[in-house]
Amino acid sequence: MFARFIIIALALVGAVGAAHGADFDAQTATQAYLDTVSGEARERSDAYFMGGYWLQLVDVIVALVIAFILLQSRFAKKLRDKMLKSLRWRWAAIMGFFAIYTLAVTVLGFPLSYYEEFMREHAYNLSNQSFMDWITENLKGLALGIIFGAPFALIFYTILRVAKRSWWMWGAGVSIFFLALMLFISPVYIAPIFNDYTPMEEGPLKARILAMADANGVPADNIYVFDTSRQSGRVTANVSGLLGTTRISLGDNLLTEGTDKEVEAVMGHELGHYVLGHSQSMMINFGLVLLAGFAFVNFTYPMVVRTMGKNWGIEGIDDIAGLPLLLALLSVFFLFATPVTNTIIRTNEAQADIFGLNVARAPDGFAAIAMKLASYRKLEPGPWEEIIFYDHPSGYARVAMSMRWKAAQLSIGATDLDPAIAPLAVSNTDE
Ligand SMILES: [Zn+2]
Questions:
Q1: 176 touches 290 (CB < 8 A)
Q2: Which residues neighbour ligand 1 (ion) by CB within 5 Å?
């Protein structure tokens, strides 16, 4: 009797689910979400993001102009000679050269950084920083760049000298090792210099996140909240670190502006990065790109030195005075490699998206968050535009995927999904 009742109940649930599934049209639901960001908000988000395409080009052009100035004025040559003379030891001269060169590039690049990171961010209401906050943060970054960069430059140039013709392979190898080391120490020693990281407040939301983490083999003490509101109103979370230091961090804006379901959807995504080992695979993929970059420098550097070297007073690849040229060539390579590097990251992001849907089972929460990210990322790019410029799936791609996932779940009678939000207005996070 009881068993029979259960069978009838299950059949009813199945029928309700199926009916719901038949009613649900993924495309209509996707469009309803996209329509929640329209008019001025949409235009502003498109303009901000597409302006960024040009800035990537401008950044490289300005870097090339600065390198040209430092070489053509013989600043690099004179600096090397002066360092070798006054510091006497070659190792000290390399580190001294690197420190002063970094300062010079920062000063010459200041107007562009000011426009890009401060003026423009404020013009689009994306920054919460005062000028003093911004400058302080930049000075911290500069100091760290010199503290970590100078010893790296020393190791790098020592290898260039010893390895000779195969320098580019050894150089790529040591750079990858250094990147891995930075990734390993950054959550513990570097990120806390810029933001406060604290354990999440106790409550049902935390309990659900910890349950998701636990179920997927992620230790609970690897989840933190940090004060992104200090920098901007952006909704954000990330996975940082490598091997033993890997951790998930949620920005406080996400907690204040997102519903519980939205937070769970984002955490499902971040758990995906963690569980799928994206920090590790990223190191390997970027290592290969870097190897190609150094091969490009190995090919082009001697050609430039043959024509301009005498004029600039620089010699082989192991001459520290050639550092501006080495970095200029590398920045040209990385500009052209942008579609490749973006696609490496975007592919991981799409994997984490699916993982997050499977774990959090909140397709509407995830779609709503995808709309919130429209404050700084164009929602509907063309296919090539997405391949070239997007390091995350577009808002359109994310919502379409969530709704397709939801349709599939409903078609097999799922009854545990989060409630639909669209077409209720979802506000843009621009304040
Ligand atoms: Zn991600």
A1: yes
A2: 349, 352
* CB atoms inside a 10 Å sphere around CB 1: 4
Looking at the chain, the number of H-run helices and the number of E-run strands are 18, 4
Strands 197-198 and 223-226: antiparallel
Contacts of 154 (CB under 8 A, 6+ apart): 91, 94, 95, 98
Q: Angle at Cα 398 formed by Cα 21 and Cα 349, nearest 5°? A: 130
**Are 325 and 333 in contact, with CB atoms under 8 Å apart?**
no
Distances (CA, A) of 11 to 16, 18, 355, 407, 418: 9, 10, 29, 20, 22
* Buried residues in 126-143 as b, exposed as e (16+ CB within 10 A): bbbbeeeebeebbeeeee
Q: Are 286 and 262 in contact (CB under 8 A)?
A: no
- 401 touches 33 (CB < 8 A): no
Residues 6+ apart with CB under 8 A from 172: 287, 290, 291, 293, 294
pLDDT along the chain (431 residues), means of 10: 42 41 80 86 86 92 95 94 89 93 95 92 87 93 94 94 91 91 88 87 88 86 84 83 82 87 92 90 92 96 92 91 95 95 94 95 92 83 89 92 93 82 45 31
Q: Do residues 271 and 356 touch, judged by C-beta distance below 8 A? A: yes
| CA-to-CA separations, 18 to 197, 403, 407, 420, in angstroms, rounded | 45, 16, 10, 16
Residues 285/162, Cβ–Cβ less than 8 Å: no
C-alpha 289 to ligand 1 mean position (Å): 20
- Residue 226 β-bridge partners: 197, 251
Element (H, E) at 197: strand 197-198
CA of 335 to the centre of ligand 1 (A): 22
Q: From ligand 1's centre to the CA of 262, what distance in Å?
A: 14
How far apart CA 109 and CA 55 sit, in angstroms, is 13
393 C-alpha to center of ligand 1: Å? 9
What is this structure's pTM?
0.85
CA of 8 to the centre of ligand 1 (A): 42
- Which amino acid does the sequence have at 28? T
Does 423 sit behind a cis peptide bond, omega within 30 degrees of 0 on the bond before it? yes
What residue type is assigned to position 53 of the chain?
Y
Concatenated DSSP letters of 154-184: HHHHHHHHHHGGGHHHHHHHHHHHHHHHHHH
CA-based nearest residue to 238, from 229, 256, 226, 221:
226
Provide the CA 245 distance to its chain's centre, in angstroms. Answer: 18
